[in-house]
Amino acid sequence: KTIYILNGPNLNMLGKREPGIYGGKTLADIETDCRKRAAVLELTTEFRQSNHEGALVDWIQEAGEKNAGGIVINPGAYGHTSIALHDAVRAVNPLPVIEVHLSNIHAREPFRHQSMIAPVAVGMICGLGPMGYTLALEALAARL
Ligand code: DQA
């Protein structure tokens, strides 16, 4: 089975972007971690990033159409704002979706405390850095 690992806006800047908050790993490093863990779990990955909300909607729909094993999504700031992403996750139900944020969004500014995706996701992992992605893969593998 294939797990879609989707990344939203500004996550292409990881490594140089506010490393005190997001750490020193690049998105390519996180992709490598995910590939390795997925191989152990006998899963394949589609790892993607876009700064555009609609691209993320398209990819959620694609994961549904292609009968993926699940989705791990770090929606970046769109997680706090996007009814379109909320609706897309609902539209592919029962495809399991796990939301990931590198930082602990609840320990940050109030505008980051709300998630539009968490209420329609299987679960949400935040504050654990890049490990959140591989933990989400483990959780999806356990459901298959
Ligand atoms: C983030 C948290 C969001 O609030 C922020 O807009 C991001 C990154 C994280 O991974 O911690 O872009 O999703």
Automatic annotation (TrEMBL):
Its EC number is 4.2.1.10. The record marks R17 as: Transition state stabilizer. Substrate binds at N74, H80, D87, L102, S103, R112. InterPro entries: DHquinase_II, DHquinase_II_CS, DHquinase_II_sf. GO terms for molecular function: 3-dehydroquinate dehydratase activity. It catalyses: 3-dehydroquinate = 3-dehydroshikimate + H2O. PROSITE patterns: DEHYDROQUINASE_II. Pathway: Metabolic intermediate biosynthesis; chorismate biosynthesis; chorismate from D-erythrose 4-phosphate and phosphoenolpyruvate: step 3/7. It is an enzyme of class 4 (lyase). The active site is at Y22 (proton acceptor), H101 (proton donor). Keywords: Amino-acid biosynthesis, Aromatic amino acid biosynthesis, Lyase. Homododecamer. This is 3-dehydroquinate dehydratase. It comes from Chelativorans salis.
